Predict the 3D structure of the following.
Amino acid sequence: MRPSLDKTVLFIAASLPALALLWLVPTGGLGVNPIREGMHYTGDWAIRLLILALAITPAAKVSGAKKLFRYRRMIGLFAFFYGLLHVFTYVVLDHFFDVETIIKDIAKRPFITIGMGVFLILLALAVTSTHQMVRRLGARRWQALHRLVYLAGVGAAVHFTLSVKKDITEPLIYGAIIAALLLARLLLRYELLPRIKIPAVRGEPVEP
Amino acid sequence: MLIRIRRAGDVRESEITPESLYLSRRLFLAGGAAAAIGLSINPARAEAELRALGPMRKSAFSTAEERTPYEAVTNYNNFYEFGLDKEDPAAKAHSLQPRPWSLRIDGEVARPQTFDVDDLIAKTPLEERIYRLRCVEAWSMVVPWVGFPLSSLLSRVEPTGKAKYVAFETLHDPMQMPGQNKEVLEWPYREGLRLDEAMHPLAILAVGLYGRVLPNQNGAPIRLVVPWKYGFKSIKSIVRIRLTERQPRTAWNVAAPDEYGFYANVNPDVDHPRWSQAKERRIGDFFRRDTLMFNGYGDEVAQLYSGMNLRRYF
């Protein structure tokens, strides 16, 4: 099956921040403390793509542009991919498998505990993202599992906010967007927000 | 209630440019003009033209460790008066006017004085001190400072018997330090030491690095360096030193008292609430290295804290 043009474009666009690293790292573009900078860079892109993934459903329902659902899985997988790079930076580059320190960090520091929780959710969603997994789990169970994405979104915003030393403006902006998307979802559910009825797309479960 | 009826030609309040923005635009335009006529405002290049400091003695306190390259020392700075990013100070500190510069010393002293910093530099024997610098954020550098012991200056103003602490203040001038327009910390930046810490021979006032006068982003024209404490204690661009009876307010301690103590001695056993202080990354290294108690200056300074609970007085 040949991938469609729009999905190819989206794939390339979402890859650009990672491809940019291939340029930034060898040229010193990440400054004199590249590991710390890379940690922030990959974390920023993980939360941005997670927000984009969360925005798909409300945007599609409110606008009636059901085509948007086609992009949801890929964007979600990219959010996981940047989250994976973020965790890789922490575990391998920053602490070089210093398991003792890492375990202590996870146990003692709420922002790392939450960050790891978010990563585990994204991992579970990524692993179960295939059509085959939808069938194996059954649509209802699959959907219940994938609603955890909202918990991941909230967790990511809290993780970011707690990790900042001073000036929490940026994480609060991300947090506000995630809260708004969650609210939109609730309003849609209780039919408090106008929506255009669309039939479920085959193979891609849509909320009732 | 005042109801204002706006006429079509009126300027909305929201359209009036705040003075600070207007002024920064002028600065931006000036920068653009400089670029247009081929002048470089690239800070790295400007630094190479900084004045070389006169003869300086070597010091037994200097470490033989490899020095962190000049480019890293001058382009990776925490100096919130110029922005929160590490690259901000190098990019923006050109607005600071470090010369002429007055340094006032008063408080519990017999002879309060105001010094002209260049005069002070000319009349004080300078030393090179190659020190480890350990940031509270778990990275470190080795910096060849040029300066003189803080104790020599304090002795000149003759502290009274009441003097127990030394309080330091950075310049407070949002025109020169645009970061002060944002309330991220209580301005001016303040720091403090116990008098016996301040009189310790390791504590210096630095006026240069790598043999030249301090670049603006490193705290020109005069800054504190206390190598056994986390970097934020080493206050930059000092305008006032006051000897006091009581422990002074310090910027980071006021901002987050549970994260940054008054003492802030480098201590691998006392974690920051959000990260471990057991290890650090030396700028330029891939692997972290163990952080040493008092940043490796324990032989010199540990006796200052004998009997003190360093977990409590972190």
Summary: Chain B is about 20% helix and 20% strand. The interface with chain A takes residues 71-72, 75-76, 80, 84, 86-87, 137, 139, 182, 184-185, 255, 271, 273-276, 278-279, 281, 283-284, 286-288 of chain B (CB under 8 Å). Confidence is low (pLDDT under 50) at residues 6-45 of chain B. The longest helix of chain B spans residues 19-36.
